[in-house]
Amino acid sequence: MEHLAPEQTTARPPAAAYRNLAVATVGFALTFWAWSLIAPLGSDFGDRLNLSSFHQSFLVAVPVIVGSLGRVPVGALTDLYGAKRMFPLVSALTIIPVLLVIPARDSFVAMLGVGFLLGIGGTTFAIGIPLVNSWFPPAHRGFALGIFGMGMGGVALSGYFTPRMAKHGENLPFIVVAVALAAFALLALVLITDRPDRPVPTSPLATRLGQAGRLRVTWELSGLYAIGFGGIVAFGVYLPTYLKTWYELDPTDAGTKAAGFALVTVVFRPIGGWLSDRIHPATVTACALAVVALFAIVQAFDPKLNPVGTVCFLLMAAGLGTASGSVFALVSQVTPQPQVGSVTGIVGAMGGLGGFVPPLVMGAVYSAKNSYSIGFMLLSDLALAGCVYAYGRMRNIGADGRRGERPADTSLMRPPKGAKRV
């Protein structure tokens, strides 16, 4: 039986760990592609349904909001049932709304309903994190979680391939993604395995979520992730608009530069995890957010796009990507193993939701002041606050995950049936 003993904190991970990491990353990317299927075609749906700018934005936002909030119960369910059941199940369920887009595309209300169901695809993040966390020992965990996090590149894949597929047939992207999800669900059913001695909670779902919510580190990590990953989401949503409005780029050029920003964040996420295996992840997070704070100030002075503005955005992307990777390395270090899924769900939800406040602020500031400078200064203040908190508070939390907090109640956990005790 493939096995990873808890005391093997620095041992080389077994082959099963890398197999699960590879399969989970592919599944994360595919379900994230499905999750963001509506956004690349937002303007087409807007024209088809004669939507206002607000209604079009709302249609695009629904899957993201639902997917973010859905990570909370899905993370807790993963603690209970394991990723071997949850990954194939969620992937298969996501097929339903993907195919429902086809008959629903002529009704705004129907599309809202489909968008709500598409949110299911955004919850796999809360399945993969506890899976990878359980298989990899601490010395390798940060980099492994960073590699898994690269699956968020599924959003970029959707942005690039979905509209191009639609040119060859308006139903083609939905059929292709549905087939890919079905193939992955079968693959995951065979290849994903939970760690044999994985602790299984016996308490009710509401109780476990309440326990995770009472952990101080849950909300501290949520705040840091809302800055790191939330910043990525915010720039992904608003950067094309900013580049078109302020620098007067055409939509294609603005979209290309925004894609470059997203690519840098994807590349630097595993780098943040890798650094966290060698340096305390709180220190990595603090340094990354310091970079974001510094170059947000520079951008607030409205430099020319080439080269200063471009350099600022790329370095902010690197900082945000690094921070999003290091925060989840920190999750694995300061969270009791039986509660990783529940905490991951809450932290992931806050990160996703954190991305929707900045675009609203940027838009409101520009409407009121005809300038984005105040918005970038606010970003700088927020990143600096995260930097100080990560370094001052989170760096001093021990490996048991608590400083002045009561240990987790292990009486509520039991090993799975047939598991070896070590």
Write up what this structure looks like.
Mean pLDDT is 81; it is low at 1-8 and 399-422. The protein has a two-stranded antiparallel sheet with strand order 1-2. The chain is 74% helix and 1% strand. The chain has helices at 15-35, 42-49, 53-81, 83-104, 108-118, 125-135, 138-149, 154-166, 172-191, 205-214, 216-246, 251-276, 281-300, 305-334, 340-354, 357-369, 373-392; strands at 200-201, 413-414. Helix 11 (216-246) packs antiparallel against helix 14. By secondary structure, it is mainly α.
Question: How is the biggest beta sheet arranged?
Answer: 2 strands, antiparallel
**Global structural class:** mainly alpha
Number of helices: 17
Q: Between the first and last Cα atoms, what is the distance in angstroms?
A: 14 Å
**Which value, in Å, is the CA radius of gyration?**
21 Å
What share of the residues does DSSP label as strand, in percent?
under 5%
Number of strands: 2
Briefly say what this structure is.
The chain is mainly alpha-helical and 422 residues long. Helices cover 74% and strands 1% of the residues. A two-stranded antiparallel ribbon has the order 1-2.
Features of this protein?
mainly alpha, two-stranded antiparallel sheet, 422 residues, single chain, 17 helices, 74% helix, disordered N terminus
Topology:
Elements: H1 15-35, H2 42-49, H3 53-81, H4 83-104, H5 108-118, H6 125-135, H7 138-149, H8 154-166, H9 172-191, E1 200-201, H10 205-214, H11 216-246, H12 251-276, H13 281-300, H14 305-334, H15 340-354, H16 357-369, H17 373-392, E2 413-414
Antiparallel strand pairs: 1-2
